[in-house]
């Protein structure tokens, strides 16, 4: 795979994930209490021996840039690299990135000197596990100019994706972005043509684009150069390529989740603790997920009840109970806390006992979750300070609410304590 370069798109605004994206890009979102979303495509590239990697950034990129710089260091004796390319204004391109394709177009002059046969274009906000060698191998076996990775979906999900229609040979003959009604029904395909089972064909007669592509190097340059108004791969570049180029599909039938909303982010995280076997697992010695090495101490769990949950490194949990929850790095739960269906992202730093005592003396809750606090169906963002006897239970069943000044939002019935928020003692949400 030394003749392949990966381009990871990490510059989206992530407005549907707000307030989690208030201070960070989507690919920098914490995942499973210790990873970040960008670790998924980065790890897959490393495991697939794709070691020429460009990461495109734009909005709120500081934490993403910092994570990449502190995590991924390749040996100077290999021909691999990780290069972050931020949106920039130049005399030729005075505007910021206008879409996925426009982002790649504007950095082609930077990556062109590195000669490769194929470009692997990836999203930075998906949760899945893929061996890109198989994807690229299929691309080359079919002599494709462009290959789209696609996943079978049913009708209820199909309207949320760009759909691919193929002929008997697996060649793409049509692509429509989020079709509905009659436009949706004409996109039905025989999934067995791409290698699906009969059961897959019956229940999921649509092929949804995963937003993951392989382009021949010259073809990508040609497609991006011939119409400068084409700013998006799904809406513009792929449909325009179908009449003139050999566009193929690669069928992917394993777990895949597009982390595009608060609800999908919350569900994808808590699905990790499902028993007996989660849909996605980090326990894979053959295809591991990498992240920043922090050298944290083991967690200390004192007189607590833990059920279907994960507790990450460096935590202190005292006489508390948790069910179907994730406790992120450096978290602290004081006596008699109760958590259910809750994602705690953890903290970026520790507080010494002296600092905690000083905060308490001035009426400020220290970092972590105070004693006798109850939390249900919530996301606790990093560095939150939650006081004693707090109830975060959405007792009125509110679906959507913005209380930025109070340190919390509610989205789709999920309570979100925002980053660095301070929730005073005895608060009820």
Description of the structure:
With 429 residues, the chain is an alpha/beta fold. It has two domains: 4-273, Spore Coat Polysaccharide Biosynthesis Protein SpsA, Chain A, CATH 3.90.550; 300-423, Hexapeptide repeat proteins (UDP N-Acetylglucosamine Acyltransferase, domain 1). It has eleven helices and 29 strands. Strands 15, 16, 18, 19, 21, 23, 25, 26, 27 and 28 form a ten-stranded mixed sheet that branches. Strand 2 and strand 3 (35-36) form a beta hairpin. The model is unreliable at 197-201 (pLDDT under 50).
Question: Which features does this protein show?
Answer:
429 residues, alpha/beta, Spore Coat Polysaccharide Biosynthesis Protein SpsA, Chain A, UDP N-Acetylglucosamine Acyltransferase, domain 1, 2 domains, ten-stranded mixed sheet, nine-stranded mixed sheet, 21% helix, 28% strand
Q: Which CATH first-tier class of the largest domain would you pick?
A: Alpha Beta
The strand count comes to: 29
N-to-C CA distance: 52 Å
Main beta sheet, described?
A: 10 strands, mixed
Secondary-structure topology with pairs:
Elements: E1 4-9, E2 30-31, E3 35-36, H1 39-47, E4 52-57, H2 62-71, E5 81-86, H3 100-111, E6 118-123, E7 126-128, H4 132-141, E8 146-153, H5 155-158, E9 162-166, E10 172-177, H6 182-185, H7 198-203, E11 206-216, H8 217-226, H9 233-241, E12 247-251, E13 256-258, H10 262-270, E14 300-302, E15 305-307, E16 310-311, E17 316-318, E18 321-323, E19 326-327, E20 332-333, E21 338-344, H11 353-361, E22 368-369, E23 374-380, E24 385-386, E25 391-392, E26 401-403, E27 408-411, E28 414-417, E29 422-423
Parallel strand pairs: 1-4, 1-6, 4-5, 8-12, 14-17, 15-18, 16-19, 17-20, 18-21, 19-21, 21-23, 22-24, 23-25, 23-28, 24-29
Antiparallel strand pairs: 2-3, 6-11, 7-13, 8-11, 9-10, 9-11, 26-27, 27-28
